Amino acid sequence: MKYAARRDKLYGIMRGAGLDVTALIPGSNHRYLTGAEHYVLERPIVSFYSLNQEPVAVVPELEIPLFQRHAEPPRIISYTDAEGYEAAFRAALHAIGSCDKTIGVDGLQMRFFEGESIRQAAPEANVVDASAPLAELRLIKDEEEIACLRRAIEISERALEAMFAEITIGMTEIEAAAILEGQLRELGGEGLSFGTILHAGGNSALPHSGPLAYRIQAGDPLIVDFGAKFKGYCADITRTVFVSAVSDEQRDYYAVVQAANDAGRLAAKPGATAESVDIAARQVVIEAGYGDLIRHRTGHGIGLEAHEPPYIVRGNERILAPGMVFTVEPGIYRTGEIGVRIEDDILITEDGAESLTTFPRELLVI
Fold first, then answer.
1. Looking at residue 125, which CATH number applies to its domain?
2. Cross-strand partners of 149
3. How far apart are CA 264 and CA 224, in angstroms?
4. What is the DSSP letter of 208?
5. Percent of the chain beyond pLDDT 90?
6. Edge to edge, what strands does the sheet with 308-312 contain?
7. What are the phi and psi torsion angles at 323 (to 5°)?
8. Percentage of the chain with pLDDT > 70?
9. In this structure, are residues 111 and 87 in contact, taking their beta carbons and an 8 Å threshold?
10. Residue 199's pLDDT is what?
11. What is the dihedral of CA 186, 192, 193, 195, to 10 degrees?
């Protein structure tokens, strides 16, 4: 019943967007609609959802056993390596009568050759980018999804605490990240939400970069941005701490970001806009005189993807509603010297907002 209801949600979105058919490759929307996860490799897998016919999927023969484990398997049209997939695409599109209809694809996910295969199989069809309407599909999380996010966050916070207890002077960023990721696995995480970002010293001013061979020194800022997955759902947490000692200047940077985080979380509530949360956090940094050190938006949605709508950024007038989950992660970065970011995962509730992350935000010296 859950997946049938989710398909009905998809069909409602399709009607509103003027789509007769939606084509999806394996990914977050596919998992949301089917409960199943598949690799994206050179052999295409494409599921077609039609307003007038039952779903049909083009599937390589060797993937059929896994595909049949879907909660509600669609009709499968398979192909072998020797046959190739072109005929399977033609058969699937003919089966759902979409040869002259409007077919929506997720332009942020579908690869060029899959889109071209659809066009060649149905040259009279109108193939359009449907990434904007499809963004509505997973925007509001249900209770089960929120429970998965809570568990992913709990695992992440316990792992972070354990890693901080093991860090020593002279350890490399790579070694520290390995400790963190090992803890995530031991505590029940099924994988990483994204590649761990862990930097010390001047490297902390790199907002998005993997761990390096730099050896952690006394007095370094240490920024850790990471998350565990649980049943596909992604945690995303950042904390910045200081190793052995903290200077007055470092305290000042940290206090500004902490105040910006507080302001962003306070601004998050039903009826507010996504933009207003960004402005609230950003204004704190600007008024402190560090506006030129802002490098990124205040946040982004999380769910089956680590970055998804709603985006907490200027210009986004999306009204926040109960069930939306997103990050509030203001940061400031002085190149080659210091970066500070504090990131929390926020759930919009009926009467306000709840921070799903509970790891302390106060300045910490480890």
1. 3.40.350.10
2. none
3. 20
4. S
5. 92
6. 308-312, 299-301, 325-328, 344-348, 353-355
7. 100, -15
8. 100
9. no
10. 98
11. 140
Are 249 and 334 within one domain?
Answer: yes
Residue identified by tokens 């052999």 is: 43
Interatomic CA distance for residues 283 and 338, integer angstroms: 20
Can you say whether the dihedral through the CA atoms of 57, 60, 64, 65 is positive or negative? Answer: negative
For the chain, how many structural domains are there in total? 2
Coil/strand/helix, residue 233: strand
Residues 26, 151, single domain; the answer is: no
How much is the pLDDT for 56? 95
Taking a C-beta distance cutoff of 8 angstroms, is the pair 302, 345 a contact?
A: yes
pLDDT value at residue 197: 98
- Calculate the average pLDDT of the chain: 96
- Helix (H) / strand (E) containing 308: strand 308-312
Instruction: Summarize pLDDT for 23-33 with one digit per residue, the tens.
Output: 999 999 999 99
Burial of 218 (0-12, 13-18, 19+ CB in 10 A): exposed
Q: Which residues pair with 326 in a beta bridge?
A: 301, 346
Strand partners, 359: none
| C-alpha–C-alpha distance, residues 261 and 280, integer Å | 9
Q: Average pLDDT for residues 77-91, to the nearest whole number? A: 96
User: Beta strand 338-341 with 325-328: parallel, antiparallel or unpaired?
Assistant: unpaired
Q: Are residues 173 and 124 in the same domain?
A: no
Residues in Cβ contact with 268 at an 8 Å cutoff, skipping those fewer than 6 apart? 277, 320, 326, 328, 346, 348, 353
State pTM to two decimals.
0.95
Average pLDDT over residues 195-214: 96
User: How many helices (DSSP H) and strands (DSSP E) are in the chain?
Assistant: 10, 19
Element (DSSP H or E) covering residue 104: strand 102-105
Do 207 and 280 fall into the same domain? yes
**CA distance linking residue 156 with residue 238, whole number of Å:** 10
State the distance between the two ends of the chain, measured CA to CA, in whole angstroms: 49
Q: Which two tokens stand for residue 264?
A: 């962003």
Contact assessment for residue 156 and residue 339, using Cβ atoms and an 8 Å cutoff: no
Q: Is the pLDDT of residue 72 over 80?
A: no
Count Cβ atoms below 10 Å from residue 283 Cβ, excluding itself: 15
Task: Please give the residue range of the domain that contains residue 98.
Answer: 2-134
User: Token digits for 255?
Assistant: 């206090």
Residue 218 lies in a domain: yes
